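Q: I'm writing up a methods section and want to include an example of the input and output format. Could you take the sequence below and give the corresponding predicted structure tokens, formatted cleanly so I can copy it straight into the document?
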Amino acid sequence: MKRIKAYLLGAWLVVTACALWSCNDDDDYYYDTGYLLPRALVTVKPNSDNTSFYMQLDDSTTLQPMNMRTSPFGTKEVRALVNYDYEGAVMAHQLQAVRVNWIDSILTKPTAVNYGEKNDSAYGNDPVEIVNSWETVAEDGYLTLRFRTRWAPGSIHRVNLVHRADSTKPYIVQLYHDANGSVGAGDVADGLVAFRLDDAFNRPDSTIEITLQWNSYSGTKTHNFKYRPRKDSITTD
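A: Here is the clean output for your methods example:
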């Protein structure tokens, strides 16, 4: 499995703090911090040969980059953090024209196979916390999570999402975390991961409720997400 690509909140805070610093003898000198932090979490959607792409901002808003013709991630659809500025009016198909200042993908992966009682041994059940953040969201076919745990230097953590499909809750998913033996070691830090929800979540025509369950440092926790099933209707071919 790929190593989790962690986005450390602390690093952003350090950069921001440095950018806000200025000389006391020059009151007119300042830094614009608007380009340092991500403005949105999007789904990057290239066409079949990546000759063009657009970004899905939410269930009803799409963004068309004016300064980038092809996706930097090739033909693969990924979730990404992006900083952008609006440019002009709404285009065809209700695409909003934007200029991308920077974009960086996050770990994007499918849900894992449900092995039932063997899930713990297959995927690990080490404690992890889900962060209440604007990046923790169910939208556009994905469950995106900001998670928090301890990271020992050089450690490789793995996270997987399993659709349990319990008879009483057809849309229940469980997050599994494997710290590879480094539980309780290292500094507390965050990671971001986006799981592509399987087709069962997108068949309904109305909003559904997804229940996420995970093993936290204080025991089992759950959280419910309102989710609007994804219905693809825009193409850039």
